[in-house]
Amino acid sequence: MNENQAFPWDHPRFRSWIGVARACQLMQQAMTRAIADLDIKTPHLDILINLYRFDGISQQELARKLLVGRSNMSMLLPQLEKRGLIERRPDAKDKRILRLSLTKSGRDLTMQAMAIQTGLIERTLSQTPEDRCLQVAEAMEDIIHILQTMEPAEEA
């Protein structure tokens, strides 16, 4: 790079991207600490919240929503099932498909965790006007759409 070229971190888009990545990482760390007393980790929380929202979702649908592979699901789900937080049942029409639901204990724990999560988000963003929060959300949704529609060859 010659001295007339700008460094990547001097570019507004690069700065924005780094800011989002750092904020995400710091929020993940704060969330991990906040839910530690519930004896769950953030990947567990992601699963529990999705099962709360989408009762009866298949393992494959859940993996797709969470952007994780089946191997991750096959590690995390048994942990939650062993604790009595979720249950897996065969689909009524296709026995190869397993449907996931929260148990009563799972629903109770998820409600506690969501209250903790909502409180952390509120404390973190309370100084940011709602319209600015919506602008950030819309920008991130645009990025998600772009990344999801990219050709695999473009990802390299």
Number of helical segments with 4 or more residues: 6
DSSP, total strands: 2
Instruction: Give the N-terminus to C-terminus distance in angstroms.
Output: 22 Å
Class from secondary-structure proportions: mainly alpha
Strand order of the largest sheet: 1-2
Largest sheet report: 2 strands, antiparallel
Mean pLDDT across all amino acids = 91
Element-level helix/strand string: HHHHEEHH
Q: Can you tell me the overall shape?
A: globular
Radius of gyration: 19 Å
Low-confidence stretches: none
Which percent range describes the beta-strand content? 5-15%
Q: Could you estimate the helical fraction of the residues in percent? A: 55-70%
Quick overview:
This protein has helices spanning 12-34, 42-53, 59-66, 70-82, 104-125, 130-149; strands at residues 86-90, 98-102.
Tell me what you see in this structure.
The chain is mainly α and 156 residues long. Helices cover 63% and strands 6% of the residues. The protein contains six helices and two strands; from the N terminus they run H-H-H-H-E-E-H-H. It has helices spanning 12-34, 42-53, 59-66, 70-82, 104-125, 130-149; strands spanning 86-90, 98-102. Strands 1-2 form a two-stranded antiparallel ribbon. A hairpin with a 7-residue loop joins strand 1 and strand 2. Helix 2 crosses helix 5 (104-125). The chain starts with 11 loop residues before the first helix and ends in a 7-residue tail after the last helix. The relative contact order is 0.10. The mean pLDDT is 91. Pfam families: MarR_2. This is MarR family transcriptional regulator. It comes from Shinella sedimenti.
